[in-house]
Write a structure and sequence with these properties.
Elements (H helix, E strand, L loop, with lengths): L13 H16 L7 E5 L6 H4 L5 E5 H10 L1 H13 L8 H11 L14 E6 L4 H11 L5 E5 L6 E4 L4 E4 L3 H22 L5 H24 L9 H13 L4 H20 L9 E5 L9 H7 L3 E6 H5 L4 E3 L5 E3 L13 H14 L9 H14 L4 E7 L9 H10 L4 E6 L9 H14 L4
Parallel strand pairs: 1-2, 1-3, 3-4, 7-8, 7-11, 11-12
Antiparallel strand pairs: 5-6, 9-10
Helix pairs in contact: 3-5, 4-5, 5-6, 7-13, 8-10, 8-13, 14-15
């Protein structure tokens, strides 16, 4: 591992990213001032469906909001206190507790009282998703609530000939989701009093597919040496698909970001000037302590991504040779969406094929993809978070760790909580990083 000094520069679109994020939360908070509609639900959402109601429909996705609360430790502490005084337990989803706490103290983390949604639109993937917003409906005094169940079955099958997982979609599983979405659209018309527009749905669906594919394309560019992006920065960029995948301004931002990252690769612009080694992480970090990623840089080590950062809001395809690439969009394959049923089927297929959803069926798929990431992104090790704040994405982490080690990939793990700063020890974690870096030959 020789010392290399690479040129660095700030992302040119960083200012635009900040403005776009601020606009998202401002549009939600002020929607009623212009006659718009507010909805709330999960980030893993098929949000094109909501835009069939009109362009002035604004959402608040819970997981990014819960993470934002976690970064403001004083605000988060007051949220923790509020939910615990109500009897909610500390071992449930930390994002959910941060969100509920913000409602209970009636404070929006961006200022002012908490903006009450007009309706709740949720998808049940993780074990707490449905209950999260069922409880919001109760706390907020019977806000209308609709939830779509996505537990339709594992989308992939092991291909013995190729020695890897391959897509194996089943029509009846896709139709199970489509039927719920059709009922959901009728419900949306009823609770909003608006007539649904299928043309707006189709336009938003094209944006949805492109946003998810573009993020995967950006992650693929991080295979380059030096890495054009570090994971701490990527956390602030993938989030736009967790906020809103389907509006023009978000797709345009991802196009601009993709082009800029490609330019950084072409010119050899690095995220870390003294990149000596690359590692990967695993799932959500402790959001109040992202300094651990900067601490890695003291050793000349850059985290180039993770299963979480790549796959939560990126859509992928596994090539026959095992290469991970961005999934081709319907429009790139010449598919023209003509009606509601066809569009909903395509949206359901993309949702069910998302890598992150596989965690709830088998840990083996995630292990296989993590090994591919380590190899293809040239990682010499992995750092894994035993996250008490997420009972869903922490499923199988111990098995993933063993699979990586059996594949010859060194791993260090630490305990913490993505949304509750009381369960993370910074000094202890830095000590583990020190020992791990030394074992990798980094000073």
């Amino acid at each position: 591992m020789t010392e290399n000094i690479y040129p660095t520069e700030q992302l040119k679109c960083w200012g635009k990213a900040k403005e776009l994020r601020e606009k998202y939360y401002r549009d939600y908070a002020t929607a009623h001032e212009t006659g718009g509609v507010r909805w709330a639900g999960g980030a893993n959402n098929i949000d094109p469906i909501l835009l069939g109601l009109g362009d002035d429909v604004h959402g608040l996705t819970g997981e990014p909001y819960g993470a934002t609360v976690a970064v403001d430790r004083d605000f988060a502490a007051r949220c923790h206190q509020a939910v615990e005084e109500k009897g909610y337990k500390r071992d449930v989803c930390a994002y959910m507790r941060n969100y509920w706490g913000s409602i209970l103290i009636d404070e929006f983390v961006f200022g002012g009282p908490f903006p009450k949604p007009d309706f709740l639109w949720q998808f049940h993937v993780c074990c707490s998703h449905a209950k999260w917003y069922e409880e919001v409906a109760r706390i907020e005094k019977d806000v209308p609530y609709y939830c779509t169940d996505l537990s339709a079955g594992f989308y992939y099958e092991w291909d013995e000939a190729l020695g890897q997982y391959q897509p194996a979609p089943k029509d009846y599983r896709i139709q199970y989701v489509v039927d719920q979405l059709q009922e959901g659209i009728e419900w949306l018309e009823k609770v909003t009093g608006r007539k649904y527009d299928d043309e707006k749905l189709i336009k938003a669906a094209y944006n949805y597919f492109e946003s998810l594919s573009l993020w995967a394309e950006i992650c693929v560019l991080n295979k380059a040496v030096p890495a054009p992006l570090d994971e701490k920065t990527m956390f602030s960029l993938y989030v736009f698909s967790a906020l809103q995948k389907s509006k023009d301004e978000y797709v345009e931002f991802f196009r601009e970001l993709r082009d800029e990252v490609q330019d950084r690769v072409d010119r050899g612009i690095a995220a870390l000037a003294n990149e000596k080694a690359r590692i990967m992480s695993d799932i959500q970090p402790p959001w109040g302590f992202l300094s651990i990623f900067r601490y890695l840089e003291d050793f000349g080590c850059v985290s180039v991504g993770s299963y979480y950062t790549f796959c939560l809001m990126g859509m992928w395809q596994i090539e026959k040779d095992g290469t991970l690439n961005a999934r081709e969009t319907p429009q790139s394959k010449g598919i023209v969406l003509k009606d509601r049923e066809q569009t909903l089927k395509m949206l359901a297929d993309w949702m069910l094929s998302q890598f992150m959803s596989t965690l709830f069926y088998t840990h083996k798929f995630k292990s296989d993809i993590m090994i591919k990431i380590a190899e293809q992104w040239k990682c010499i090790g992995a750092i894994m978070h035993y996250n008490r704040g997420c009972e869903g994405l922490t499923l199988g982490v111990a098995e993933n760790r063993m699979a990586l080690m059996e594949a010859g990939i060194p791993v260090v793990s630490y305990e913490g909580n993505m949304g509750d700063e009381r369960e993370f020890d910074l000094a202890e974690t830095q000590g583990k990083i020190d020992a791990f870096m030394e074992s990798l030959g980094l000073k």
